[in-house]
Amino acid sequence: MVPSLSGQNARRGLLLVMIEIDPAHEQEFTEWYNKEHLPERVNCPGFLSGRRFEAIEGSPKYLAIYDLASTAVLESAAYRRLAAPSPWTKRIDGFITREIRNVYIDITPENLARPSPLYESS
Questions:
Q1: What's the CA gap between 48 and 71, in Å, rounded?
Q2: Per 3-state DSSP, what percentage of the chain is helix, strand, and coil (rounded to 5)?
Q3: Per the confidence metrics, is the pTM higher than 0.85?
């Protein structure tokens, strides 16, 4: 069971996902992530940005980091709609050999926080 995140509205959040994939399916995984999975999330209200990384050392091999306006976005109706997997997502899920998904809240002291240009409004 996922603990309630709605009490964490005051601070920004971070969703971190690390995945190991069957090497025989890495190309399709990358295509799926870049064409379906990542766009769905970065276009979801409350997601400020999303980025992917590939390990040059250590594992799991793939990392995705999503900056969130607050952790409450993970309980929103818009995000819950993403939970219904597409046929392509169901296929890719079968190739994932390890997955770590963590949710964080920003605890940086205000006097040390430096705003990211990603969040500045014009």
A1: 12
A2: 35, 30, 40
A3: no
Q: Is 31 helix (H, G, I), strand (E, B) or coil?
A: helix
**Alpha carbon 60 to its chain's center:** 15
Of 2-16, 24-38, 45-59, give the lowest mean pLDDT range.
Answer: 2-16
Tell me: pLDDT of 1 over 50: no
Q: Set out the domains of the chain in order of their start, with CATH numbers.
A: 11-105 (3.30.70.100)
**Can you tell me the mean pLDDT for 86-93?**
96
Task: Locate 110 and state its tokens.
Answer: 């205000």
Beta bridge partners, 20, equal: 98
Measure the CA–CA gap between 89 and 36, rounded to whole angstroms: 9
- Closest by alpha carbon to 70, among 4, 18, 19, 114? 4
